[in-house]
Amino acid sequence: MKITAIIIDDEELARENLKMLLNEFCPEVNVIGMGQNIDEARKLIFEKKPEAVFLDIRMPSGEEGLELLEDVKTNNFQIVFVTAFKDYAIKAFNINSIHYILKPIDIDDLIESVKKLLNYKDLFSQDSANLETYLESIKNFSDNIHYQNESSKITISHTKGIKIIEDASILYLEGDGNCTNIHFVDGASFFDTRTLKVYEEILNQNKFFRIHKKYIINLSYLTDYLHKDGYFALLQTTIKLPVARARVSEFIKTIKAL
C-alpha cells in the first residue's frame, strides 16, 4: 500500500532530512511536495491532494492552524506532527489516531508512524463520524502542546507571602544543598528552600534543561556550547556553566532541536 505526503517545516534542512529518511526507510510514502509555512501547506494540499501532511508542531498555532484543520474536512488527509517536544511532555496526548515524530527523528519512530498512517488511510472516507473524532483529537493535541509552550509562571511561598515568577525571567537555577538559588536575567536572585529536583519537575521541559547536578538553564538564553577543556554552556555570552559529561549527549540533541 502506498500513501502520498507533503512535508511542512520552516527549516529547509529539516524538510530535506525528513524526505531523505522517508525515501530510504519508508518507501510506502511518496513525497509529492514540501513547503515552509501554513500558506504553502494549503496551496500544496489544494493542488496535490496529499493523503498525509508531515507538519512541524510550531506551524499549527492560532487561526492558521484551525484553518488547516478545516482543510482536513474537505481534502481528507492525515497529519503527522513533527516536534522537538520531549516525549514525556506530550505522552498524555498520544491518542492512537494522532501521529507524531520527535526531533531528532528516530528511524523506528518514523517507521511506526508510517504504519499508523497506512492503517488509518481509509478510515475517514468510510465514516464521517471518524473524521470528526479525528479532527477533535488533533485540535486538542495541538492546543495542549501550544499551551505547554506558552510563557508560564511559577509560584514560591516565602515568609512574607507568595512570589510569582515568569519563567522567561529566569536565567538559570543553581542547587545549594537541599535549596535552590534562582538567578534572573536582570541580575537579581532569589533563594528557595525547595530542591533543584523539584524545579526540574515543575519547569517547562521544553524551555529548561538540567545540564549538571547543580544547574538548570533557560535554553532561551543559551548562546554557545563549548567543549574545549571540559563541557560548558554559555548564557548571554558571559555566564559559563559546566555541563556534566553524562548530560552532554542529550544536551547536544536538545540544542540541535531548538
Describe, in plain words, how this protein is organized in 3D:
The strands form 4 sheets. Strands 2-1-3-4-5 form a 5-stranded parallel β-sheet, sandwiched between helices. A 5-stranded antiparallel β-sheet has the order 10-9-8-12-11, with helices on one face. Strands 13-14-15 form a 3-stranded antiparallel β-sheet, with no helix packed on it. The two termini are 35 Å apart. It has 9 helices and 15 strands. With 258 residues, it is an alpha/beta fold. About 4% of the residues have low confidence.
Overview in brief:
With 258 residues, the protein is of the alpha/beta class. The chain is built from nine helices and 15 strands.
Write the layout of secondary structure elements.
Elements: E1 3-8, H1 12-25, E2 29-35, H2 38-48, E3 52-56, H3 62-75, E4 78-83, H4 87-90, E5 99-102, H5 107-119, H6 123-126, H7 128-149, E6 153-158, E7 161-166, E8 170-176, E9 179-184, E10 189-192, H8 196-202, E11 208-212, E12 215-218, E13 222-226, E14 232-235, E15 239-242, H9 248-256
